[in-house]
Design brief:
The chain has seven helices and twelve strands. The chain is of the alpha/beta class and 244 residues long. The protein has two domains: 162 residues, Ribonuclease E inhibitor RraA/RraA-like (Glucose Oxidase, domain 1, 3-Layer(bba) Sandwich), CATH 3.50.30; 39 residues. Strands 1, 2, 3, 5, 7, 8, 11 and 12 form an eight-stranded mixed sheet that branches. α2 packs across α6 and α6 runs antiparallel to α7. The longest helix is centred in the last third of the chain and has 20 residues. It starts with 5 loop residues before the first helix and ends in a 14-residue tail after the last helix.
Length: 244
């Protein structure tokens, strides 16, 4: 299995998340429902993506009334990120009793995370201080904004979490931008940059055909299949039949 290196993560920053999703769908046997998040998780810091990093996972209750804060797992995650020379992405599952009141981070936490080597946050809760997040800069993907929070109680650091309809495990590679959030199946990670370049070429050629008004739909269907085969993509992408 391909090691997740900082160099590989930097290469992935050359591509938008939609292109990588198309590429993964064409080369990976993993079902698509396992690696792309639902549309409720959106960028609230447009202009800062793409984001690529290694997932650090935890749960957070920031909304249940009463009780005391518990930040031990949060500080433990920061120490782990500091010891890792690769960019991290904090992935937080909110578990409080008032989901609409969950607030996972603001600009103060973002500065602390960024200083530890974390380049972004993905959460099914809310965040605040968007202008401050932009200036850190700290790419953030969430369900939106929430103005405040209760005592922050972090737990389950390093355990798998379900966010955006998929399960994210610590160490997964996360890629995100204004289009959405994905995790990259490890079986295709090493070949993904080169395959994404080929996907770019396929899309340019296919889109030239699809835009034409003098070519009927039936011919476009056949033509796209031939272009798929030309670039070596064997799985279904835009056609309902395997090309070739």
């Amino acid at each position: 299995m391909t090691p997740v290196t900082g160099q590989l993560l930097r290469q992935l920053l050359e591509f938008d998340t939609t292109l990588l999703a198309n590429t993964i769908g064409a080369i990976s046997p993993m079902p698509v429902d396992a690696w792309y998040m639902g549309g409720s998780i959106q960028s609230v810091t447009p202009g800062l993506g793409p984001t690529a990093g290694v997932a650090y996972t935890c749960e957070l209750d920031s909304s249940t009334p009463g009780g005391q804060a518990d930040l031990d797992d949060y500080w433990r995650i920061l120490e782990q990120m500091e010891a890792d020379d690769r960019p991290g992405v904090l992935v937080v599952k909110t578990v409080g009793s008032r989901p609409d009141h969950e607030c996972v981070a603001g600009d103060g936490m973002a500065k602390t995370l960024f200083a530890a080597g974390c380049v972004g946050l993905v959460t099914d809760g809310g965040v605040r201080d968007i202008p401050g997040l932009m200036t850190v800069p700290f790419a953030t993907y969430s369900k939106g904004q929430t103005i405040h929070h209760g005592p922050l109680r972090f737990r389950a650091a390093g355990q798998p979490v379900e966010v955006g309809g998929i399960v994210v495990k610590q160490g997964d590679v996360v890629h995100a931008d204004t289009g959405g959030v994905i995790t990259i199946p490890p079986t295709c990670l090493g070949e993904l940059p080169a395959q994404a370049v080929r996907m770019q070429s396929f899309e340019r050629e296919a889109h030239l055909l699809l835009r034409r008004t003098d070519v009927p739909a039936s011919a476009k269907r056949t033509g796209v299949g031939k272009i798929l085969a030309k670039y070596g993509f064997k799985q279904v992408c835009l056609t309902s039949k395997q090309p070739g």
